[in-house]
Amino acid sequence: MTEGNFTDYVKVFVASGNGGKGSMHLHREKFVAKGGPDGGDGGRGGHIIIRGNKNLWTLIHFKFQKHFRAGHGEGGGANRSTGADGKDVYLEVPLGTIVKNALTDEVLFEITEDKQEIIALHGGKGGLGNWHFRSATNQTPRYAQPGIPGEEMELLLELKVLADVGFVGFPNAGKSTLLSVITSAKPKIGDYPFTTLKPNLGIVEHRDFQSFVVADIPGIIEGAAEGKGLGHYFLRHIERNSTLLFLIPADSKDIVEEYHILLNELKEYNPELLDKDRLIAISKSDMLDEELTVEIEKEIKPALKGIPFLFISSVSGKGIQQLKDTLWKMINK
């Protein structure tokens, strides 16, 4: 999936169907002069149904079609026959999609399971036929109920990617390079900030045919929680990850300070993110010799207060297998 095809935020207009009107039919048959009322009920209008699909990773299929209308119910008929229900409309979305009322921003529900179906808008109820209104004093009612109109709404579909591990780091920290090394994903890579403009997902193949999903989130900058840079728009994707991998390059001026800046941005956005498991990967460590590595380790270990860290290099492969093993243990502890 290319970066340009990743869509995680879209507005759609939906309308459920009107209910069919009830019938005012009076039974007429040979040798039955006054058969009485036998008008059937109208069919219900079609629903708008949101359905989860595990094979979808993006909302790109809503890019060119944003209006959906369900079918109307048909009117009732003679012999108490009920009209046909309107055709339901199914909107298939990837797992992790939150459905909101676009007008009020109220969260209506979220889809987290494959084939999970939730009715977003109910179709209008069909009207009752005149058969229901017969009585001892009114044996031939010549009226029936009209169908109830359907509903209209603008929905906001917002995808929070479902991944086991989320990469957190400043632009140009080596997140995309690491993703390309440990998965078969082909993210855009360049030696300049904000190479990644959309989240990238990849599947890491581990030992014994085991695997887990990682997400490369666009780089966070200081002030991202207030809307600076690209971070604010994509920080929501980190909410679904069980483990956060902080990538900090070995040539950083202050590794511990950079970690605390990233941590603070997550806290400002959503304090609950601090409850997730954390691992720090010091990337680009092929630039370090053994002596310098030991020196950095001694310097940062007390300041990180028990947060695990390791040195990796996507170029040389240093620490990559150890990183996979550590992440696997954290996910499955």
UniProtKB/TrEMBL annotation:
Compartmental location: Cytoplasm
Keyword Hydrolase (UniProt): yes
A GO CC annotation given for this chain: cytoplasm
EC code: 3.6.5.-
Function: An essential GTPase which binds GTP, GDP and possibly (p)ppGpp with moderate affinity, with high nucleotide exchange rates and a fairly low GTP hydrolysis rate. Plays a role in control of the cell cycle, stress response, ribosome biogenesis and in those bacteria that undergo differentiation, in morphogenesis control.
Enzyme class (EC, first level): hydrolase
Domain Obg: 4-162
Primary gene name: obg
Keyword field: Cytoplasm, GTP-binding, Hydrolase, Magnesium, Metal-binding, Nucleotide-binding
PROSITE patterns attached to this UniProt entry: G_OBG, GTP1_OBG, OBG
Biological process according to GO: ribosome biogenesis
Protein's UniProt name: GTPase Obg
Needed co-factor(s): Mg(2+)
Record-level Gene Ontology MF annotations: GTP binding; GTPase activity; magnesium ion binding; ribosome binding
Gene3D superfamilies documented for this protein: GTP1/OBG domain, P-loop containing nucleotide triphosphate hydrolases
Source organism (scientific name): Capnocytophaga stomatis
Family of the protein in this entry: Belongs to the TRAFAC class OBG-HflX-like GTPase superfamily. OBG GTPase family.
Domain annotation OBG-type G: ranges: 163-332
